[in-house]
Write a structure and sequence with these properties.
By secondary structure, the protein is an alpha+beta fold. The protein contains 5 helices and 12 strands. The chain has 2 domains: 98 residues, Rossmann fold, CATH 3.40.50; 94 residues, Thrombin, subunit H, CATH 2.40.10. The termini are far apart.
Length: 216
């Protein structure tokens, strides 16, 4: 981990054109690291390692499945209790003042990080296998899933999900967006919490499946 004086206080993830602008700002805050969305996994490593005070995201990136998974992870992981997710605001935004170049002090009380599909908390009745390994499905939508597994998966790794309930066997493919090691206090054993970005999903089929198996 970086020394306290060098730890990033703000991590920014933005689209490539905006990144170029931000890096030329003369009044950029100290201890601010700026990443292009193409370098998402490098940014994720910094966020997981250093838990910066502020994670500021381009609104377009936040609306993707990968951005939404990151927001959900930060807001639910106790390690980020002192971190705040915020949105970027530039001069092109209608609420920004005429002289505003960049403002990363905008709290995400706005509809920020909204997923493209509703994500449902899933009941434990769904048998879940990832690449053949039995796991626990936490939540699910047409764009992504969160699973707890006993095996390690790496970001960008392609995975196969097999979800089985009393009526349907659902076969899905996706890519690991993020993965985090955990120790289950109750079972005193290691496990991994994994966010998966799903590919080529029939949204109507998935919505029916989620509604049937969601937590009451």
């Amino acid at each position: 981990m970086l020394e306290d004086t060098a730890r990033p206080q703000t991590v920014v993830i933005a689209s490539a054109p905006l990144v170029s602008r931000l890096r030329t700002l003369p009044d950029l805050q100290e201890n601010t690291l700026i990443f292009s969305e193409a370098d998402f996994f490098a940014a994720l490593e910094v966020i997981l390692t250093d838990a910066p005070q502020v994670i500021a995201l381009d609104a377009q990136f936040a609306a993707t499945a990968r951005g939404a998974a990151l927001v959900a992870r930060i807001r639910t992981d106790p390690r980020f209790s002192a971190s705040e997710v915020r949105t970027l605001r530039t001069a092109q935004d209608p609420d920004a003042g005429p002289d505003t170049t960049l403002d990363i002090a905008v709290p995400t009380e706005l509809p920020f990080g909204t997923r493209r599909a509703v994500r449902y908390e899933i009941a434990h009745i769904v048998e879940t296998r990832v690449n053949g390994t039995l796991g626990q499905l936490i939540n699910l939508s047409a764009t992504g899933a969160q699973v707890i597994l006993p095996i390690r998966l790496r970001p960008t790794e392609t995975v196969r999900l097999l979800l089985t309930d009393h009526a349907t066997e659902l076969r899905l493919t996706g890519v690991v967006a993020w993965a985090a090691f955990e120790i289950d206090v109750k079972d005193a054993g290691p496990r991994y919490r994994v966010g998966v970005e799903l590919h080529d999903v029939d949204e109507s089929v998935m919505d029916r499946y989620c509604r049937r198996n969601r937590q009451p």
